[in-house]
Amino acid sequence: MPDIATERMPFIRILDNGRRAVLEIPSNSAKELVTEDALLGLVRERGVLVDRAVDEAVRALAVRNMSRGAGDATDVDGAIAEWIPPIHGADARIDWVERFRPDAAIGETGDGALPVDHYNRVKRIKVAAGDVLGTLVAPEEGVDGRDVCGRSVTANRGRKLALQPDGTVQVESDGSIRALKDGVLSLARLKISIVDAMEVPGAVDFSTGNIDFVGSVKVKDGIRDNFTLRATGDVTIGGLIEAADLIVGGDCTCERGVAARGSGHMLVDGSLESAYLNGVCGRIRGSLAIDREIVGCELLVGGDVTVARGSIVGGTLIVGGALKVASIGTEAGAKTVIRIGAMPIQLAKAARIAELAKELAKRIAPLEDRQLEIAGRGLKATAAEKESLTELAFEIAEARRRLRLLDEKRTELLVHAGSSRIVKVEVSKLLYAGTTILVGNREARITTTLKGPLTLGWDENRNLQVRMAGGRVQELREVASVREVAA
User: Alpha helix (H) ranges present in 147-192?
Assistant: First the structure.
């Protein structure tokens, strides 16, 4: 008869707040208590939910216990149940379209091989009206779990995203986030918007990086060497612009001026106002208004140029409209070239159209050759070749239509440039000897310093003349060396 005093009962441990159940079978347990059925009964009494997996685990431990060799005093134990953890619901999120992803680094390749470009490390994401920026994904409810006793373990519901779209974007019924205007994507405290106005509280430097913006930009300070500011709207710069690049889709105001030192560039599709320009290479489609001086610049201006209180010294200035300035050139004879009466913007566009027309004409010739080749084969042409004749005829007709439109536009530009060109230069103080003035294919090099106020322009026969103070008129050839040059 077994020694009752030394017998121990099998027992169940429930661990980690119901996450795990362990069955322990002491080596000296009574055989009646460690049968499969007895052990399953003990598991149920302890409150453990018995399913197929638990049943199999208990029976496996019972078999292990029964198969112990004589004299084996080792206890048998093992896990018989594990909890089913809850699947917590995912929080709401925005699945961004890749090119609008705010956290994507500029030049990101995934291998980290690209060096850091400190001039472009600040990312601004340009957006066009109608672009789908991403999709707002709703929060998930989650799936409840259960512990080893079958009690429910509640899953956390995903949190909502407190997104605050303004009137520049809309969230559609399918969750798509669509831009309603052109601009730059802005995210601030989950307020998503498209902005078309930007204010820089300091200078454009390493703190801002290069700026490429859809809309208007206002910079309180200046633009440092080698940086670029590009904007589709108006731009105002409060400080000094150094040897930087400025590309402006609207009007531009440079309150302190531009000291480019021969390395800066300006492209302005509107008009430009500046305190002064020094060493700038650029193009202004509209008018140019300078308070003090233009020194050593290479400029093409589509409209009028006004230098209110100063001079044009050195460089080349091409003016599509009238020129009004205090002085031109210097006493030392700095090489200063003024071209007027040219309508440069229109002529440049006409030249570009001529290049496009030439390229288009080159594409027509092989199409026509192929058309003639197939037509010449007559009945020997295959069905596919005969079918291609229709496509070739359409392509040729479409190319000729475009060629005709280009030619009409070029003619329109040239006629407008010829009929609208202005030759008018007003000098209030001095027109220095050595200054070169180009009008069409005529080059006039001023040989005598002329005191203003004076006006240089055309007479009724389009002869160049100078009207001096008091109304006295002189032919330009009297005060300048005039010669014909290639147009």
Answer: none
Give residues with Cβ within 8 angstroms of 43, minimum separation 6: 12, 21, 23, 50, 54, 58, 80
Residue type, 100: F
H or E element at residue 185: strand 183-188
Could you tell me which of 452, 399, 457, 402 has the C-alpha nearest to residue 424?
A: 457
pLDDT at 395 over 60: yes
The chain-wide mean pLDDT, for the chain, equals: 87
pLDDT tens for each residue of 475-484: 888 888 888 8
- Determine how many CB atoms are found less than 10 A away from the CB of residue 415: 12
Range list of H helices, 378-469? 383-420
* Mean pLDDT computed over 208-225: 93
Q: What is this structure's pTM?
A: 0.67
Helix axes 344-377, 383-420, angle to 10 degrees: 160
Q: How many CB atoms lie within 10 A of CB 243?
A: 19
Residue 124 scores a pLDDT above 90: no
- Give the integer Cα–Cα distance in Å for 445 and 326: 19
